[in-house]
């Protein structure tokens, strides 16, 4: 089976990566590290380059987990991107990181993480960075 890990190069993304690799190692699953740009973005600071992607795969392999990085471009609906990848790969779990948000931010603005938690077609493990 496969585990999808939502990854951005931040403490939140690192928390998701570590938790996803631990789950995959415990279950004997492989992982797809999802690092996808938004459609139409000319620059995306959250997108890792090929060298960084290779390092992510090497980290997974060092943990005993087979991995690949997916850079599928997504539109406004990130849930559709994760659901399509889950169907394509037979994923049984999505792992995402959560960042701290202010009460106003929670009330006024939705988030991709919230939408994934509520609408994904497979179970979701949400983690926070430790520090």
Automatic annotation (TrEMBL):
Pfam families: Usp (PF00582). InterPro entries: Rossmann-like_a/b/a_fold, Universal_stress_UspA, UspA. It comes from the Bacteria. Signal peptide: none annotated. Residues 2-128 form the UspA domain. Belongs to the universal stress protein A family. This is Universal stress protein UspA. It comes from Nocardioides luteus.
């Amino acid at each position: 089976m496969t585990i999808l890990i939502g990854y951005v190069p931040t403490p939140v993304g690192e928390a998701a990566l570590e938790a996803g690799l631990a789950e995959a190692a415990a279950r004997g699953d492989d992982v797809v590290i999802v690092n996808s740009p938004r459609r139409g973005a000319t620059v995306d600071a959250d997108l890792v380059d090929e060298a960084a992607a290779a390092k992510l795969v090497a980290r997974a392999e060092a943990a005993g987990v087979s991995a690949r990085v997916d850079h599928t471009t997504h539109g406004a609906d990130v849930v559709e991107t994760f659901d399509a990848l889950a169907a394509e790969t037979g994923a049984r779990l999505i792992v995402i990181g959560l960042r701290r948000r202010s009460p106003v931010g929670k009330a006024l603005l939705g988030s991709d993480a919230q939408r994934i938690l509520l609408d994904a077609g497979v179970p979701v493990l949400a983690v926070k960075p430790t520090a």
